[in-house]
Protein: ABC transporter ATP-binding protein
Amino acid sequence: MTAIIEVQNLQMKYGKEEALKNVSFSIRKGEIFGFLGPSGSGKTTTIKIMTAQLTHTGGQVSVFGQPASEMNKGHNKSKFGILSDNSGLYQRLSIEENLLLYSQLYNLPKSTIEEALAFVNLQKDRKKKVNQLSKGMMQRVVLARTIMHKPPLLFLDEPTSALDPVNAQHIYNGLRKLNELGTTIFLTTHNMEEAELLCNRVAFLHKGEIREIDTPLALKKKYSDHSFTVELENGENHVVYNGEQGAVQLMEWMKAKRVSRMYSNEPTLGDIFVQITGSDL
Ligand SMILES: Nc1ncnc2c1ncn2[C@@H]1O[C@H](COP(=O)(O)OP(=O)(O)OP(=O)(O)O)[C@@H](O)[C@H]1O
Structure:
């Protein structure tokens, strides 16, 4: 499959501070790629470099086969959408008026406004002025604007950080649909559940370095201790490991019909992050 983004040995220094150290990854067309890491690990810096808002101090970054610095050229701007907390919305205009202005800027049909409003579940609030919106509503308006011109590549910097679970689910469904239609998505998040639900592959960033990169399933297998928890009818919980000893014990309980529940102790992405870095998200 074609790589849409290629990052090799990326380094970024802000003065003496090294924000990114030899970061390498490649993103294929059609992937939802999760860039996960705690605050200050370098996620936003990476997005800014890939979208020509910042110039890196070392390594190579190409997007759509061109150096990332080309992404601020007019002919490239319609190829991607960026969602960040820097909203740039007209505060005194309504949601709908903001989207209308944006549609005119990109010469988009009016139908795209309806689609975008539905995408973020804001049809009923369309007449509200931006300066009267909650943080979560504002985030949804910016997301609506980001997806309106249907770019083949989306950079989403913590797209659901201010959303309640219902609206977050609505956005996940929308993003999955866009992805099914071919959109490649680069997503940063602190939310490990979001990453598990959405991403085909994830990278763990810690202090400017990639510590792991793989599918959520492969990472879970790699960091699993292959144990199961068995809950017995009398309420006792036992951890049983894969192997002969575990099998004999389990068989005894099963023969005696004592097993009430059994589940795998597979780690979550959050557990794996803690295991790798020794720190929490
Ligand atoms: N303009 C800047 N000047 C100096 N240092 C900066 C600048 N922008 C970011 N940094 C530093 O670079 C490091 C990475 O910051 P970055 O914003 O990329 O992290 P992040 O992972 O996106 O964090 P968050 O999740 O809080 O948004 C941090 O130590 C930050 O202080």
Observations:
- Residues 10 and 59 are 4 Å apart (CA to CA).
- The mean pLDDT is 92.
- The pocket of adenosine-5'-triphosphate is lined by residues 14, 17, 19, 37, 39-45 (CB under 6 Å).
- The domain at 3-79+151-215 is CATH 3.40.50.300 (Rossmann fold).
